[in-house]
């Protein structure tokens, strides 16, 4: 994969992660949530859909040939959110705060900072979009 393909893939992961975990700011309390906890309110199918989208994010991240440790941590994050997210109401609250997709994005960006300096030079967010809170459009 060339640098521009990597950057497109990374930006797709960023968009999906934010869509699922930080798409909206709740008025009055100021907490950011995404579609993940909202989908979790749909009995049965909601958590399945959210987990499938998170699995797709991991699939896209795996294209960067991540080490097994990083990939394992990403899978753990999604599985933890899936298991606890299945608990009615408590799971939805957990989903709103745990944000497995944004955690996985941070893991990916940290890895890429160390492994792909050519990507970092072309990335307008400098591989720190999670830390800086930038939103990729």
Number of strands: 2
* Continuous helix count: 8
What form results from the Cα inertia axes?
Answer: globular
Biggest pleated sheet = 2 strands, antiparallel
Widest sheet: strand order? Answer: 1-2
Query: Which regions contain 5 or more consecutive residues with pLDDT less than 50?
Result: none
Query: Which range best describes the helical content: under 10%, 10-25%, 25-40%, 40-55%, 55-70% or over 70%?
Result: 55-70%
Whole-number mean pLDDT: 87
Beta-strand percentage? under 5%
- SSE order: HEEHHHHHHH
Structural category is mainly alpha
Oligomeric state of the chains present here: single chain
The total domain count is 1
Q: In whole angstroms, how far apart are the ends?
A: 22 Å
Q: Over all CA atoms, what is the radius of gyration?
A: 15 Å
Q: What does it look like?
A:
The protein is mainly alpha-helical and 137 residues long. A hairpin with a 6-residue loop joins strand 1 (24-25) and strand 2. The mean pLDDT is 87. The protein has a two-stranded antiparallel sheet. The relative contact order is 0.17. The longest helix has 19 residues, at 3-21. The protein contains 8 helices and 2 strands. The radius of gyration is 15 Å and the shape is globular. It has helices spanning 3-21, 35-39, 45-62, 68-85, 90-98, 100-115, 117-122, 129-132; strands at 24-25, 32-33. The two termini are 22 Å apart. The protein has one domain.
């Amino acid at each position: 994969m060339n640098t521009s393909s990597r950057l497109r893939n990374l930006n797709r992961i960023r968009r999906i992660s934010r869509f699922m975990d930080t798409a909206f700011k709740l008025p009055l309390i100021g907490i950011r949530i995404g579609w993940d906890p909202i989908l979790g309110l749909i009995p049965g199918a909601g958590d399945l859909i959210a987990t499938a989208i998170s699995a797709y994010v991991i699939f896209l991240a795996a294209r960067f040939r991540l080490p097994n440790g990083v990939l394992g941590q990403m899978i753990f994050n999604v599985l933890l959110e899936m298991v606890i997210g299945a608990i009615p109401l408590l799971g939805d609250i957990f989903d709103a705060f745990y944000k497995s997709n944004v955690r996985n994005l941070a893991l990916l960006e940290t890895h890429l900072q160390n492994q792909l300096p050519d990507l970092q030079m072309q990335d307008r967010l400098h591989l720190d979009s999670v830390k800086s809170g930038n939103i990729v459009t």
